[in-house]
Structure formats: structure tokens, C-alpha cells
Prior knowledge:
The structure holds two protein chains of two kinds.
Chain A: H1 2-17, H2 24-41, H3 49-78, H4 81-85, H5 91-105, H6 107-121, H7 130-157, H8 161-165, H9 170-175, H10 197-208, H11 217-249
Chain B: E1 3-20, E2 23-40, E3 44-48, H1 55-62, E4 70-75, E5 78-79, H2 84-90, E6 91-94, H3 107-117, H4 122-135, H5 151-163, E7 169-173, H6 181-196, E8 200-205, H7 208-214, E9 217-222, E10 225-230, E11 243-248, H8 256-259, E12 265-272, E13 275-280, H9 283-295, E14 301-304, H10 308-316
Amino acid sequence: MSDILSGVVLQLRLFRRVPGNLLIFMTVPFFSLIFLSAARSHGDHVVSPREILAPVLMGFWLVGCQIAEMVVSYERAYGTLEIIVAAPARFTWVVTGRVLTVALLGIVTLLEVIVMSRVAFGIAVTVYHPTVFILGLLATILASAGTSTIMTAVFLAVRGARRYVNTLGYPFYILAGVLVPITFLPSPLRPLADPIYLYWSGNVLYGSLGRASIRDPELSLVMIVLLACASYAAGNLLIRKVIDRMRASGEIGLG
Amino acid sequence: MSEVVELERVTRKYNYSTRAGGRGTKGEVIALADISMTISKGEIIGLLGPNGAGKTTLIKIISTVLLPTSGSVKVLGFDIVRDAPRVRQRIGIVFGGERGLYGRLTVRENLEYWSAMYRVPRSEACKRIPRLLERIGLASQEQTPFDRLSKGMKQRVHLARGLLNDPELVIMDEPTSGMDPVAAREFRELVRELCLDGRTILLATHDMVEAERLCNRVALIDHGRIRGIEDPKSIGQWLTAYGRIEACVDDCDVSVEGFSEIPGVSQIEMIGDGWVRIHTSSEEATASLMRLLVNSGVTSVRTSRPSLEEVYLQVIGDRGLTV
């Protein structure tokens, strides 16, 4: 537990000392601006929940990728990875603390979207199913942290993580139905949405903003939590395996 | 238990693959070959060798960062592969240079973070950090970001970080690299104090003066093999078994070539300003040589021992920039 807490404190301090790391939160209002402007320019007087909340889900995904990249790049650049490996603390717990902090900060993207909708477009965001919405949001935070853990392992294994981060966005937004419903996709591609938490998060979060009842909210919530747990467990296992491999191969260096 | 580190036939190989002209080649580099040595409690032992000799690989293995390909390593009685967590609690690592601490965080924030990483209880860390900062003379800099410190100060913070868990073994990799002479001297003083605390120190360095002044024993390492381990004061015996006599022969009626006729004189070299250095390999040779010098009217005579640098160049060889 103390390792997780240390990860939280470290991440908060790095954000405070390196405000540039918070730039990621600047992109979400722009997404919101673009989507809502596009809707309005098509003459839509009633904006769909997808147009309002898609930037939030994109924000969660983006900060998840960015933190994974940041953890690995920072540890490599500062030469701290090797010392953590040689310290009694468990690197995986520290990573958990760091990604959880950033995933929690993902809520900021929701606030940004609510403010942008209200101030720039006069849209009041109404949540018709608040319980499902809050549970969905909490589950999404966990899933975002789980996904970041897997990505941390991948970025540890593959050098030059920064190059890959930008390619990990839009294919997932499309496949998971964040931007357009997956019914727009060819049938053979639709099952690809199932293992992506964004799809299930979209179901509950988008549904919560509609008056109509949400289709299978329990299933969606369970799926998000399951995917969160699975990705977290897989990420931890992968990180341990990658570090063991690096210790064996000599890719990890002291200097 | 008096042995802090026990290495037995440790070998480390690295696999490599290259691709040139469309053809891939794979191979194996032996970084450490069959290394056996022990380090006793309270010793400062220096690992001395050129770039690529295997010093850092050895340090990585002892600090549990790297696994040996074969052989066994025990630190304070614990196997570094099977009991890595126990080893980690008992060792401290000190790097040279900028790496190993978060540049944007303050000195205090860095030390708090690393205390947690070394599982130092928070209440204990709160007492230990100010004490360490006081000891390294940086109490007034605790709120300064690490990046803004001078090189010498950074190195002292590295040392403080390495001592947070009160380690029995402190492993240092080129700790004074890039430091100015004054800062390096102060740093060495701190290291000497650590030894007086009863800690054992393993020091990888390029710096002969540092090794000579600090270490109880020096291990010369080259091409992954230990070429010898010796007290730096007696390491000169590797070059000359008995002694070296230096004499000023400038205004004397003596033939330098004549020295070579004395049995046991192994080498003669002119060292400038009319001085000659004669190496002997037996006590009789030294006595005969002294008689000859006195009889020839030589009045300026001194004896010397080879410096560590001379031994290093002789044993390892002067390779210039070749690795």
C-alpha cells in the first residue's frame, strides 16, 4: 500500500513541478469544441450524448496512454528505473499509484466538457441516470488505470514509446464506437469492440445522458470492471516479466 | 560473518545481433569471465579498469539489477538471485553524474521518495533525511530542485540517497566522475567516514588517485577478468619485486650502462633532469647498486614505489581510446 501511495505522491509532485505534463488536459476542450461545432453546423438543435461525452472518453484514453509513456520515458531519462529495480519497493505498485492518480485526474476532462458545453454552446448537460453515470465513471477510471498498466509494460519492452502513443488513439475510438456507433462498422469488425473498455463505458455514460432507459447497464458495468481487472493483472504480470527479461538480457543498465 | 560479498566463478555473457548489408549476425560477448573474489566487512574495495572491462557489469550483478549467466553471488549471506529482496534492503547504490534522481523534484522530495522505495518507515525517514542532509552539508539546499545543484552537490545527494536505508554495503559507480578536485576530495572524505561507520564499500572508478587514497584493496579488472587484487600500497610489487632506486647522475662520473651489468637490475630508465630510475629484483642487487652509486660519488639518491597508475598502465596496457 505504501508503494502505491508513494507512486501517487510522486506523480502529483511531478505534475506540480513539470506543469507541461498537464498539457494533455488542454486537448479535451478542443475536441469538445470541434464536435459540438460540427453538430451545430449541421443544424442539430439537440446535441447527442455522444457528441458531448466522446471527448471525455478520448481524454481518459489519451491520459492513460500519456502516463504510461511518461512513466517509462521519465524513468529511463532520469536513470531511476535501474535503482527502482534494485530497491525493495515493487515497481508495479509504484506504477499503479501513478496511473491511478492520472486516471482520477481524467475526471477533469468531464468538468472541462461540461464547462465548454455550457459556456460556448449554452448546453446544460443533464444526467438522467446519475447512479449508473457515477458507477460508470468510477469503473472507467479503473479501466483507464488498468490499460495504462498494460501500456507501461509495452513501452518498457519497446523502446521509443513516444512514437507509438499517437497511433494508439483513433483506431480504438472508431472500433469502440466512441465517435460513431459501432453499427456503422462492417459486421466482422464489431466484435473487436468487446475487449475495449471504451465501448462499454460509452454504453453507460452516453446512455446516462438520455431520458430512455439504458440497455443492459449492469452488463456494461460488469464488463468495464472485468476489463479493468484483467488489464491491470495482465499489465502487472507483463511489467514483472519484462523487467525479469531485461535483468537476464542486460538491457537494463546502471548508467 | 566477515564476508560481505562472495563471488564464485561468476560469468556474464551478453548476446548481440547486428544487421549489416542485409545479413544478420548473432554472437556472444563475455563481459565477465569466471570471477571469484570476496569482500570483507569494513573494506573499501576499488574496481579499477578501462571502459568495457566489466566493472559496471559486476556492480550491476552485485546490486541485483542484472542476473549472472553462471556462478554464484552472495551479499551478506543472501544469494542475489534467490534472495534478491533481502539483498536489496541491505545495500545502497550511488551513481556518478546526473542520473538516478528526479531533476525537477527538490532534494527533500527526492529523498522522501527514495526512502519510501527503500521501505524506510515514514517516521524514521523524517529523522534520517535531515541528519543525512546535515552530514553531507546540504541542509540549506533541501528545497532546491535537484537540477539546480552543482555537480559536487548532486553527487552528495546521490550519496545521501544511497544511505537512506542505512545499508551495510554501499556500491558506488564512478561517484566522482566529472567533479572538480575540491568537490572530489570532499566526497572522498565522506566515503572514508562511511567506512569508519563500519560500512563496506565497493567502488568502481577510473580514478587512480581516488583508488589509491581510498581503497584498502584494489581489483584490476580487464576483459572481464580480475588481473589481481592487492592493497594499493603494495600493488607496486607487481612491477618490481624489491624496489626502485632513483639517482641524480648529472655531475657524476658514472656510466648508466654500467648499472645493467649488476645482476638483478631489471630495468633502467632516464626520468629527466639528470635522474635515472633503476629497477631491481633482488635485495642483493639493491645493495650492490647502492654501493656502486656511493663509490661513484652520487649524493642524491631516493627510493620510490610504482604508483597505481604505473601498475595500471603496465598490467592493463596503454590503449589510448581503444575499448
